[in-house]
């Protein structure tokens, strides 16, 4: 397995975990819904944390990415509920 493939797998796993955590907090979604909201949330959360210059002070990059993606997934789910 190449490094690029491993990177995609890790990215999807982070998205799945973030989507699952977001569904626990705001409710909803099955496996695909968790994955989609988590992956989109990873982009949204990463952008927002970077844009506002928010640093969590956590040294573990994987934990930071899961937190960013979870916050982003919560925002995505809540915005989707407002639209639909």
TrEMBL record:
Transmembrane segments: 7-24, 30-49, 61-83
Record keywords, A-Z: Cell membrane, Membrane, Transmembrane, Transmembrane helix
Pfam families from the UniProt entry: Transgly_assoc
Signal peptide: none
KW Membrane (keyword) present: yes
InterPro entries, alphabetized: Transgly_assoc
Location(s), subcellular: Cell membrane
Entry GO CC: plasma membrane
Membrane topology annotation: Multi-pass membrane protein
Superkingdom of this protein's organism: Bacteria
Family membership noted in the UniProt record: Belongs to the UPF0410 family.
Protein's name in the database: Transglycosylase associated protein
Species name: Rhizobium multihospitium
Organism placement in taxonomy: Bacteria, Pseudomonadati, Pseudomonadota, Alphaproteobacteria, Hyphomicrobiales
């Amino acid at each position: 397995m190449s490094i690029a493939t491993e990177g995609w797998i890790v990215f999807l796993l982070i998205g799945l975990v973030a989507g699952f955590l977001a569904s626990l907090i705001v409710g909803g979604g099955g496996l695909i819904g968790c994955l989609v909201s988590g992956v989109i949330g990873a982009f949204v959360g990463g952008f927002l944390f970077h844009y506002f210059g928010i640093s969590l002070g956590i040294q573990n990059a994987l934990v930071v990415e899961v937190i960013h993606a979870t916050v982003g997934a919560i925002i995505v789910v809540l915005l989707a509920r407002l639209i639909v």
